[in-house]
Amino acid sequence: AARSNAKRRVGQNAAMTRTITSFIDGAFVPADGARLFDKRSPVDGRVIARIAEADAAQVNAAVQAARRAMAGEWGRMPVEKRCALLHAMADEITRRFDDFVAAEMADTGQPSHVMTHVFIPRGAANFKVFADVVKNVATESFRTDTPDGRGALNYAIRKPKGVIGVVCPWNAPFLLMTWKLGPALACGNAVVVKPSEETPLTAALLGEVMNAVGIPKGVYNVVNGFGPGSTGEFVTSHPGVDAITFTGETRTGTAIMRAAAEGVRDVSFELGGKNAGIVFADADFDAAVDGIFRSAFLNTGQVCLGTERVYVERPIFERFRDALKAKAEAVKYGRPEDHASTYGPLISREHQQKVLGYYRLAVEEGASVVTGGGVPQMPAELAEGCWVQPTIWTGLADDARTVREEVFGPCCHLRPFDSEDEVVGLANDTDYGLSTTIWTQNLARAHRMAERIDVGITWINSWFLRDLRTPFGGSKHSGIGREGGVHSLEFYTETRNVCVKL
Ligand code: NAD
């Protein structure tokens, strides 16, 4: 709550900045009387929007609107029509591509090429892919013998869960929100979305898209605000929310799980990671350097699947370290709309302070700083941005906090290893279990290791290569459940069995 209060400052340039309000029952609600807080640009610290915090009454209005949608036209809509609407959504997002790119760049400060090549196109794809999954996945059927010899027929049907609470993080706001919305809506649910307080813009824009393509009112609702003691908690503790899908920190997942226990409601969690990258001496060297570089520094290291622990086979350790250092020192800081920039700021001042705290801790814990470790010198107009240098360490002990805790910044620790068994042990020596990336030409070894490393997702000679039909999620403290393809249907629908005596 203290963290939330610190952020509740009224905008300084009130006349010049727009106000983002909740989207409920097909309309943006007026900001009258709402508490407002500032959204600052991560690039230069300017206030770019003011956000109206949704109180408990507004969250209740959103949940009631969603329940009415389920009881109305949306709840009765044939699958074919629902899926056609989702395709129309994807087309409308593509038509307004530049608006989405601009909104996401303003919110996150990340370079335009990441938006135009990954985050926005994949956001649109999330609607199409899940519409197609829902239309094409069959349910099971069993013929059962009975004593009278006539038998019985069992078949399963899928029904939407109802109203889904969708609580989102800030690191890839549009991609991660639509990753949940696509299947939720394709399966026929209504949603109440709580975007991160740091990144409200694309969720608001999506309200316009919903209305433009004719999604019935109340199917998509957005409420803005903070987490504990605020909008996030109001959503997750509302009894009218039937299930909660959440992406964010493991600690927050624990709080949401407690809220969901009331009313025994289902949860799907995609949480933190402290992922290992493993490079064998026989790997395609340049591809491995590129892959580990992207996995550690893409999105300024703010990727749940990112690599913060890198294990390199001893014969190539020094060469690998030097090659990674050279790439890290070649990043081009700059505004997202400047096509020359390859590297953006962190999301907020608060997150910058957290990451810099880990940079100091690493040194206290005995790290050798290969490169980075601080704030880059920026031109005056960007000096108020949340910049940090890409940072590489060596020499930390395996039990150092910097090696065990998720920093969620552009940093990694390199450590040499000598054998397959040793590196499997090191990779598994963590409470997290989200993903790993293995680089080797020896595919038999790679397959063997994929079975032994306790993570939800293993990439071999690649990283972040996604097929939306595959299961996605974490082991251990990195999550509960799997989403993606047919796995999403397990969470967003309830399977019911019908038994017919013949
Ligand atoms: P966060 O947990 O701080 O916040 C996520 C969302 O939860 C925000 O909308 C926030 O307002 C809300 N929230 C916070 N406390 C709440 C509460 N008590 N009740 C209800 N809602 C609450 O996470 P973040 O800082 O936005 O995102 C970074 C984290 O997300 C990292 O740990 C990262 O690894 C993780 N992440 C995981 C995945 C994945 O797929 N596994 C993907 C992206 C990010």
Automatic annotation (TrEMBL):
This is Aldehyde dehydrogenase. It holds the Pfam family Aldedh. Belongs to the aldehyde dehydrogenase family. It comes from the Bacteria. Coiled coil: none annotated. CDD domains: ALDH_F8_HMSADH. Residues 29-498 form the Aldehyde dehydrogenase domain. Keywords: NAD, Oxidoreductase. PANTHER family: 2-AMINOMUCONIC SEMIALDEHYDE DEHYDROGENASE. The active site is at E270. Transmembrane segments: none annotated. The keyword Cell cycle does not apply. The keyword Coiled coil does not apply. InterPro entries: Ald_DH/histidinol_DH (IPR016161), Ald_DH_C (IPR016163), Ald_DH_CS_CYS (IPR016160), Ald_DH_CS_GLU (IPR029510), Ald_DH_N (IPR016162), Aldehyde_DH_dom (IPR015590), OHmuconic_semiald_DH (IPR017628).
